[in-house]
Amino acid sequence: MAGTETPQLENPESEKDELAGSEMPLLDHLIELRKRLMYSIVAVAVLFIGCFIISNWIFNLLLGPYKAAVKNIEDVHLIYTAPQEFFFTQMNVAFFGAIFLAFPVIASQIYMFVAPGLYKKERKAFLPYLIATPVFFLLGACLVYFGVMPMALRFFLGMQEGGPGSVTITMQTRVSEYLSLIMTLILAFGVCFQLPVILTLLAQIGVVGSDFLKKGRKYAIVIILIIAALLSPPDPLSQIGLSVPMYLLYEFSIQAVRWVERRRAIKEAAEKAASGG
Known about the structure:
mainly alpha; 76% helix
């Protein structure tokens, strides 16, 4: 009888940890969700106020690609055509900065909400992706800031015309339109750069495999082109600038998934050898 009772008493603390949070009633889940949402909203609100105070500095920072695209800083002329336009543009800049800076807080609150319902090994597997998400988002933002945006602006500025005996055509950029363009591109590239994180996480839980991703290359190209057309502004340079890195990220994701599969195979072989011994 003692032999049959032993498995029931084995590692009670481990079992308690594995099932932590699973007994929480629905009302408690809703209260916890409200608390996490409030923390995220407060973080965004506080950062919004701070970013609004330094909105001119953020605005000048976002002008970096424009300055890089022209030869002289004096050639940079931005306009606004409505009295309230620049004020609301500053608010948009402040909100963009607040979301960008609050992303780690929002991600950590999401993790704290879902973590009690995960097994211990799932929580450990989830943490690296929590760190990788802002890193890849920042990589996408840097590609826009230092690569795609200056290249696109040089192309658009090169379309200006003028000279003796001809009509002068110059680009008079509105403040709101320029900032809308660069912020849209930063968000689009930041989201699309999550592709390796998402696919590797799906591979970790066994939803996708490297063979499946290899066979789906032709479909992936079509999907990438559609996503680039939807997320980027309607000009060829922006769409190509988004679709090419996304395809490279897809190829990188295949290698990352293969690495996950090799690690899983090694672990399963070791467990099988240990159980056989």
